[in-house]
Amino acid sequence: MNERRHEPLLPGFKEMAQRRKALASDLVARRVALGLTQTQVAARMGTSQSSVARVEAGAADVRLSTIDRYAAAVGHVVAWSLDAPRTAPRPPPRGKGAERGDD
């Protein structure tokens, strides 16, 4: 068995993947509500049906422009924002006496 298990270098990778999957689910729900097939959305985007399927799977790390085009194809826009993390990492202790908080 050659399965690699390790901690990611950057905390929050799992949460990032969850947000991508949630966005993909929202896009699929919008497509289905409009009665569109993946092929029809692909035609509106100027791409292939397999590209739409990859976006909808939510596992692929697709380009932002692809997400923007998909959203436009189903009559929406994506609102991008830069937010602070929900829990800020604690800074490492500094210098001698850091354990006691008297440096």
The number of helical runs is 4
Averaging pLDDT over every residue, what do you get? Answer: 84
Q: What structural class should be given to the helix and strand makeup?
A: mainly alpha
CATH-wise, what's the superfamily of the domain at 13-73? lambda repressor-like DNA-binding domains
Query: Within the CATH hierarchy, at the fold level, what is the topology of the domain at 13-73?
Result: 434 Repressor (Amino-terminal Domain)
Largest sheet: none
The overall strand count is: 0
Element-level helix/strand string: HHHH
Identify the CATH architecture of the domain at 13-73. Orthogonal Bundle
Cα-atom Rg, whole angstroms?
A: 20 Å
> Beta-sheet strand percentage?
under 5%
Amino-to-carboxy terminus distance: 49 Å
- CATH class value of the domain at 13-73: Mainly Alpha
Model regions low in confidence, pLDDT < 50 over at least 5 residues: none
Percentage of helical residues? 40-55%
Which outline best applies? elongated
